[in-house]
Design a protein that fits this description.
InterPro entries: Quinoprotein_ADH-like_sf, WD40/YVTN_repeat-like_dom_sf. The protein has about 300 residues and is mainly β. The protein is built from 3 helices and 20 strands.
Length: about 300
Amino acid sequence: MIVNRRHMLMAGAGLCLASGARARPTLPGEAPTYDARELTAVPNAAAIGRRYWSPGLNEGYVPQGLTVFGDEVLIAAYRSTERDQDNGPARLFRLSRRDGRLLGSFALPATYGHPGGLATARDTLFVANSGRLLALDFKESCRSGECVPLKEMRVDKSMGPSFLTTSGDALWFGPYRREGAPNLHAVPIDRVLAGGETPIGLADSRAILPLPLLSQGATFDKAGKVWISQSSGNRPAFLSQLDPATGAVLARYPAPGGIEDLGFAPDGRLWAVGEAGTQRWSRWSTFYPLVFEIDPAKLVA
């Protein structure tokens, strides 16, 4: 039988593509259709447990903020497929922490086009967007499928907030900085919710901790230590553990490139989300557009 060489080459290419496709793991969520790459091998892979595709990838959503609320992982993302567009329509996505199922989503206000951080206190969800802070009724927003704001505050931009976390009765504000001496600021939650219309400023800080440069997210573990994610574009990324009294770096661990916000679950696992491999950042060498779980005890410096 005579076989056309071109057909043989095409068949071989098909086998290679099929092999490559099989190498991409089957993960919960909607896999990207705009990029056929396998997931990149990342630092500290042995510490990473459950992995889910970040929601909305095929619609152009870029994940930024993350927090854990009970059995849910909440992700704030904005829509952009262009490198030079850093704002867009934004949504809050709710994922099952156990299996990655999409439980629902709702749109965020147009003024929150780059929702860099999320934090919860009781049933109030806080959303950060540089110079702005939104408090919303999370349960009612979930029930109605629409954002139900409780209050919106202006914030001194020297405090960010690029990202947020809570500890006790304080909401912590952090700015993303490439240079200088950034700080993490603790503001009483009562000041945020019942403090009138006066913008939140430096004078409202009850405690201040120095931050590493390129900080993208923050969260507190059960022992009270602060965990910070650090990334910048296509550069290597890190997780840093800080002393909660002084801000001194206690440990520093390599992390997947493009890592964004962080949140601790009740079981002591750390959750993170990455933007590397989203449509906006699809040209980076790292392809890891995932929501992922980290076991801190397995991290290697």
